[in-house]
Every structure is written in C-alpha cells, then in structure tokens.
Amino acid sequence: MEEKLSLQEWIDLAETKKISFGDFCIDFQAKELEIDKKVLLERMEDMLHVMEQSVAIGLTGIASMGGLVGGNGKKVEVYRSESTDKSVVGSVMSKAIMIALAVGEANASMGRIVAAPTAGASGTLPAVLFSLAEARGFSMGELGKALIVAGAIGMVISSRASLSGAAGGCQAECGSAAAMAAGAAVELYGGSPEQVGQAVAITLKNMLGLVCDPVAGLVEVPCVKRNAGAAAQAMVAAEMALAGICSVIPVDEVIDAMAAVGNAMSCTLKETAQGGLAVSPTGILLANKLFAKVES
Amino acid sequence: MNIFDVIGPVMIGPSSSHTAGAVRLGNLALAILGEGVKEAVIGLHGSFAQTYRGHGTDLALSAGLQGWATDDTRIPKSFDSAKEAKFDISFSTINLGDLSHPNSVRFWLTGVNGNKCIVTGASIGGGRVVVTNIDDFPVEFNGDFPAILTMHRDRPGAIALVTSILSTQGVNVAQMKVFRKQKGGLAAMIVETDQPIDDAAFEVIGKLPHIQSVRRIQLV
User: Does pLDDT of A296 surpass 60?
Assistant: First the structure.
C-alpha cells in the first residue's frame, strides 16, 4: 500500500515558502523525478500539444466506435459562431463545453488523447485550460505549470481514494478530472495555494456520489457529456475559491469521503454496465444491438 | 506513482484498459514468441468478449502483435497493415472461467520461423497488464522489466545455475518466481532483471543442464 499523500501538507509548505502552488509543485516534482524543471515543463507542453490535436480531431465531427456519440462538439462550435447572444453560460464556458465534447468524441473514435487522469475523463482538463487560455491569453508555459498543479492534485486523490471508475465510480474519474482542472484554473488566475485546495474540495463535494454507468460498457454514453459537466463544475468551484469562499470540510477529508462513498457504492455502479443508465430500457436496447453486431 | 501516471499516458482511445492495455498485451505476447507473428488465433474473455468491437480491443491487440506502441495513430488501421504483411489474425470469444479477470485474452501464436506459444494475460486497469499463463504454465509478470522465462526440470541447482550466469554478466535480478506442476517434473521460472540480458548470456543459459527451453522477453 502506497503512503497517503496530503494536499493540505503541500499547500502549507507552499504558503510557508510564500510561493505559488504551481512553483511548489514544479520544484517538488522535478526533484522527485530527478529531472530538470525545464524538462518537466517541456514534457507538460508536449502533453498540451497532444490535447490540442485531440480537440481538432473531435471537431471534425467523427463518429465513435460504438456509434453512440460524435458530432456534438461540432454542434456547439457552430452554435457559438452564430451569435454571442445565444450563449446561456457565456463565451468562456461555452468554449469549454465545446472542447470537452470534442476531446471525448476524439477518444471514443480511437483518436490520440492524453489520459488525464483517465481516457474516459480526458476532455475535462483541455476544456478548462484552453478556454481560459483563450479568455486571458495564457502562454503554453503557464498552461504547463497549471497542468503540473493538476497532476499533483491527481496524485493525492489517487493515493487517498482512486482515479478509476471501476474502483470509485465516475466521481473518481470525471470528479477527479474536474478537481484537478479547478486547481489548475485557480493557479492560472493567480490564486493562493490555499485557494487551490478550496477549489479542489468544492469540486469534489459537488460531484460526490456520481456513478459510472456506461451504456453497453463503452466510453461513450454518458461519459462524453459528463466531461462537459465536469469542466463546468471545475469553473464554478474555481470562481468560488478565487472569491475567497472556503469549503467547510477540509480538502483531504473531502477526498477521504469520496473514497468512502466509492467503497460503499454498489459494484453495479462501477463501470460494470449493470446499473444506472446502462440498464435503462434504452441503454439495454442499445447494448443488445451492439452485442448482436459482435455475434454476427 | 509520479505525475506522468496522472497526466498521461498519451494513448489511442477510447479506454485505457480495453485499448491501451490490449496493445500492451499484444506487445508482451509478441515478445514472448520472440519473432514476428505469422498467425494469431485470439480468444477474448469476459468484458473483452462483450465489448471488444466498441473499444477497438481487436484492433489494439493486432497493433500490439505488430509491435506498435499504445499511442500509435495507425492502431485504427492495424488490420490493413496485418493483411499487407500477410499476418493472419482471427478472434473468437472464449470462457476462461469465473476466476479469470474480466478483461482477459488468450493468444495462440505461430511465428514467421514456425515457433509457437500460447499466452494468456489480463488488462487490469489504467493500461497496466499482467501475463498469467504461458504454454500452460501459470506465471505472473507485467513486462516492466527485461525477463527470461525458462522451462526446466525441477532439480536441485537448476535455478542457481541460471542466476549465477546472470551474476557473472553483471545482471541484477529484480524479482523472480518459480512455478512447477509437480515435484521433480517440469517447472517454469520467470526472472525479471534490472539490466537487459545479452545474447551471450541467453545462449549459455539455454545450454545449461536441466534447462529445456528459454525465452527472452524484452519490450522496446
């Protein structure tokens, strides 16, 4: 069993050193990996380039392997381009929704993606990072640093709970991706280390209990749209944290609560396609159709 | 665990277990065969059997058997490339029993030089895999280290001879496991090492007393 990490411990260390959480994470990770800080940042920028390509693949409107998703990122792109008055959530979040769907669809069609933290949740981080980058003109270097913050948050969640839908439900996949993205957003907007922790806590609280119930067992329905939801949750939490709002429950305790909820969750709701949407009448119908295709 | 376990890997979707893990299982089966694959008969068990088309598990296994990496953009077209290379691959569903991991696969492989092997493995999450059986011998290894697999007679000194050859070559043993079906009968040993095992050491091990066969398993 790996040692449990503590996000609060890292936050306190960064606060004591009076450096941003991003700078703390770069120092810490470069030391742990025994690589130069510059190399670490370059590798993160490589990941960002792959993410950009995933967005482009998704926006071509390709169909998925199972045929249940595809073309929705493109729909949002068209809707956004028609008129700014049409957007309910505003330009930044609308862009995030578009990117989340596009990457999720690229993944479902065997496109190349960065698992962050998983393939099923791969749309969330690019959605938040790239939509904020467009709004504020962040450089690839700044986004790379934010990605390191996201990675550090994921490491803590993995050590105390889980990042896999099979082990902890969708809260552990899309929930963790959202928490990682929320922390990254706070870092980008110059928030304090403490505020990074608050954003993580608030996000996970808002996504606690989310089940993993993929129709026909495929990473398509509801996974792709959940990435858009997760990106929005991340932005909502980042906004609250930056405004100085605190989570009543401390961040490490929230992560532990997520682990406990995941353990209490029935196996039917952890990626087995035996519960939730997967066994809705339409879910069963679609699964039977897809399995019939396999048999033939 | 490090940060690249969370941000990464770069992979072809849609699933780390059903796609990336399947590529890696193909890579391992290829390494165990030790030569290019001419014919692969593949049995898919459990969730692999039910959802392989929707996850591109079949394409991923074919890609892995051709030695491609998990982020190779040719994976969706791996059947075309197999056809061009006259590499014959077929799939069926199989029941490996309730005790098998739901994402399990069995390969019956024939190589370009006529070598054969039967390999069973499972994709256990996040792209991580484990090989559980080779040629009817229960084993357990994941390909993270270079390894040799011996089939040998279960005799005193059989194991010591192998490890002594490795030590004279400056190869450190990371972990090793020995399996046997019955006392004094045929046994198998997996030795995972920190350094690659060179041709000279590999040939000497093959000629040691009690050793029936030896395979070298090294992923690129």
Answer: no
Interchain contact, A119 vs B14, CB within 8 Å: yes
- pTM for this model (two decimals): 0.90
Chain A contact set for B73 (CB, 8 A):
112
pLDDT at A295: 56
- CATH number attached to the domain at B3-135: 3.30.1330.90
| pLDDT score recorded for residue A132 | 98
Q: Are A61 and A71 in contact (CB under 8 A)?
A: yes
- How far does the CA of residue A212 sit from the closest CA of chain B (Å)? 14
Alpha carbon of B77: minimum distance to chain A alpha carbons (Å): 10
Tell me if A110 and B2 make a contact (CB, 8 A cut-off).
no
Residue spans per domain, chain B: 3-135, 147-217
Measured between beta carbons, which residues in chain B are less than 8 angstroms from residue A164? 125-126
CATH number of the domain located at residue range(s) A7-295 in this protein: 1.10.4100
Say which of A2, A29, A110 has its CB closest to residue B76.
Answer: A110
Q: Please write the tens of the pLDDT for every residue from B80-104.
A: 999 999 999 999 999 999 889 989 9
Domains of chain A by residue range? 7-295
Four-residue CA torsion sign, B92, B96, B97, B102: negative
Query: Using the beta-carbon criterion (under 8 Å), do A164 and B59 form an inter-chain contact?
Result: no
Q: At residue A208, does pLDDT exceed 60?
A: yes
Q: What is the CATH number of domain B147-217?
A: 3.30.70.260
State whether B50 and A294 contact (CB < 8 Å).
yes
- A:B CB pairs within 8 Å: 131
- Could you say which of B7, B52, B54 has the minimum Cβ distance to residue A151? B7
* pLDDT tens sequence across B159-183: 999 999 999 999 999 999 998 888 9
**Mean of the pLDDT values across residues A232-244?**
98
